[in-house]
Amino acid sequence: MGLFDFFKKGLAKTRDKLVAGLRSILPFGRKIDEALLDELHVTMLAADMGPSAVDALVDALRTAWKAGTIKESQDIIPFLKQRIAASWGDDPTALRFAPSGPTVILVVGVNGSGKTTSVAKLTSYLKKQGKSVLVGACDTFRAAAIDQLTIWAERCGASIVKHQHGSDPAAVAFDACEAAIARKMDILILDTAGRLHTQDHLMRELEKIRRVVQKRLPEAPHETLLVLDATIGQNALQQARMFSQVTPVTGLFLAKLDGSAKGGVVVGIREQLKIPVRFVGLGETMDAIEPFDPKAFVEGLFAE
Q: What average pLDDT is seen over the chain?
């Protein structure tokens, strides 16, 4: 499946909502006026693009209409596609790898976001890129998380470092770093406990994990990926905002995009936070992961 087809399939629920709404208000040849712009505003909000992003898009449309660049309804979707894709600019969406030694990827998120499954997908993806991968099971609060990660790692053919349920997550992170260095691994992925930004003790623990990792690998973690559940729409934007206030988030993994009619949240996150989306998860299988591509995303979002 090509990247466009991947996004087209995964964004089906969002697109049904967005494109059906657009089609109803954009009959061929309808002249653009303020009433049409108001209807567009409501339709894009319904796709969970977020008030700020929608305001910016409608303002840009209004400016182009008044300048005579666009005149009729059929001009609007090409304009929106170009504008949304351009909002990513030249920002690289690919993972940043360490120049030498293991690349450390710290994975954070709230419980229920699909974090551990996303770690498995990321592990599988990187293994298929020819990388050697070690996983550190730093979510020691839930025995089920350790068991789940062990099963995923075995399926992927990845190594795992784990301690007993209830042990110190930072100690797991330290041992995982030692093992990654000793075994000359390409990638170390640290799965951390699901936490809310309001849980101070868990946030302090996240800082402790970072400090321990930096003692062994001063430039690490090279990536801090926040896993967001796309099905919660604008709440995902709020989670991203809160997490980025307490820990340096370098990229997003958007999970469950296929189960949501709220895929437009990707546009809102970009407009508000400027944090790059690194990966999207579409489906339950380990292969259901793709690196984020703004152009393919936009084409999939508006595909007829």
A: 86
